[in-house]
Every structure is written in structure tokens, then in C-alpha cells.
Amino acid sequence: MMTSIRAYQVAESIHIKNFRQAFAATIHSGNNSELFYVLEGQRFLYVLNYGVIVMAGYDEVEMSKMRNFVKDYAENWIDNTAIWDDFAIQWDATVSKAVFQDNYVRLSPQADPLYVRIVMLNIGQSVGLDYYEKLTDEILQSTQGYTKDLERLGRIPLPKKKLLKFIGRTLNVKNSIADNLYILDDPAIVWEDPALDFFNKHLKEAFDTYPRFKDLDYRLKIVEDNLRLFTEILQHRESSRLEWIIIVLILIEVLNLIFKELVGKS
User: Fold this and answer.
1) Which long-range contacts (CB under 8 A, 24 or more apart) does 86-93 make?
2) Residue 102 — φ and ψ, nearest 5°?
3) pLDDT at 71 exceeding the cut of 70
4) How confident is the model at residue 1 (pLDDT cuts 50, 70, 90)?
């Protein structure tokens, strides 16, 4: 038997405490940042506070209902459902340990539900990385557009207010990504069980988690360098403006003195 798993990035964050109080099911394991449920009918649910929900054994209608349910406990909801990924578990009584395939893993029907949790956690982390990669690509494209203007024109053709808004929006995205990169941390349950730890590491290799994280971190550093450049340009622009204001004021004062002197002589 095959159990399909799908993970969605539905929001920037989910209020775990509020969801836990509202969802009428007994929690199997979890903490303040994640909840894992083992439900009837060979179904599993994983809710992660960085805006990801992972459902196993759900059909399309049930998944749609769950997304709608989660919406009441989410912050900065993502209106589309484009950020998602699939995986599967094949229950095979002939295997005593996990057997990894291209897009699914074979587990014994007697396997501890914690193995299912680790599978769902890794696909959830993968979708979270997809989301942050998408955000990083967007701000990189914007910053590269302005650096091209700088190369072509010798300046950034944006008024102060718009440039400040762009810097603020980019900083917010960068900070959101930086704040949530802990999603790649291994759960405490794998520290105490070598078999679970091996299973978890194998899944991270399957999803290319660490190489993708390094690439994301590299692109974030490029964004940070660009932001530093834009901030320096803005400061230089402001300094130049203040210098011109001072020059104009001095000129007005000189002209005023000359005028008074001419009036006095007349």
C-alpha cells in the first residue's frame, strides 16, 4: 500500500498554540514550533510554525479543507498553492528497514510513526527552502536591475522614498529568511536514536537540503552586499543634498549682506 505525502507552504508563519487548541485530535509529538498527529485511516498531519503543513494519506478534498482550516491560524497567507512538493511511503511487509527509492521510501507496516514524522519533516523543510529560494530570487532580480542602472547611468534612478521602501522591503524579506533558517535543524528525536539519525541524514541527501542551503546562504550574502551599497549611495545622496543646501544658504547670506551694503551706500 502506498501513502501519498504532500507539503504546502501556505503562509509565512502558523500560530502553533492556537492551532493546537482548535484542532480536535490528540497530538502524537511536538513542541512550540511543530505538531505531529497520527490520525485514523492511516493519515498523518505535520504542522510547522514557519508556514508549512504536511499531509499524508489525505485526498485532494481533505487537503483543501485542511488548508482552509489552517488559514484561521496563519499569518501572511499565501494565496496560491504553487509552493508544494510530493513524496510517498510504500508499506512493505517484506522489508525490515527503510529502502529508499527515487521519490518514495519503503517502510515496514510495523515501523514506528516517528519514521513517518521524519519523512514529513524533511519534505516540509524542502518546501520551506523552495519558498525562501523563490523570495531570494525575487529580491536578487530587483537588486541586479538597480545595479545595472548604476552601471549604465552612474546612478540609481529612484527618488529617496522609493529607494527607502525598496531597501525596507528587501531587508524584511532577508530577515524573514534569516529568522527561519533554523528549519534545517535536526529534531531532538534523532539525537537519541542512531537508526533515526541515519534515516534523517539519508533523506536530507535525497532532498539536497544542505547544498540548497549553502546556495541560499551565498545568494543572501550577495543581497546583503547590494543593500550595503544602496544604503551608502542613499547616504551619499543625502550628504550631497545637505552640502548644496548649506552652499545655497551661505550664498543667500552673502547676497543679503551685499544687498544691505549697497542699500546703505545709497
Assistant:
1) 86/4, 86/5, 86/6, 87/5, 87/6, 87/7, 87/119, 87/123, 88/2, 88/3, 88/4, 88/5, 89/2, 89/3, 89/5, 89/56, 89/116, 89/119, 90/1, 90/2, 90/3, 91/1, 91/2, 91/3
2) -60, -50
3) yes
4) confident
Listed residue (112, 107, 146) closest to 230, CA to CA: 146
Average per-residue pLDDT for the chain: 85
- The mean per-residue pLDDT over the stretch 117-138 comes to 91
Alpha helices by DSSP H, 56-187? 60-71, 113-153, 160-180
Residue in 235, 231, 241, 236 with CA at minimum distance from that of residue 167: 231
> Computed from CA positions of residues 66, 72, 73, 77, in that sequence, does the dihedral angle turn out positive or negative?
positive
With cut-offs at 50, 70 and 90, classify the pLDDT of residue 73.
very high
Taking alpha carbons only, the member of 233, 189, 181, 239 closest to residue 212 is 181
Helix (H, G, I), strand (E, B) or coil at 249: helix
φ, ψ dihedrals at 98, nearest 5°: -65, 140
- Half-sphere exposure in the Cβ direction for 84 (13 Å, CA): 18
pLDDT digits (tens, 9 = 90+) for 35-61: 999 999 889 999 999 999 999 999 999
Say if CB 226 and CB 143 are below 8 A apart: yes
Please measure the distance between the N-terminal and C-terminal CA atoms of the chain and give it in whole angstroms. Answer: 107
CB 44 within 8 A of CB 31: no
Q: How many whole angstroms separate alpha carbon 52 and alpha carbon 183?
A: 11
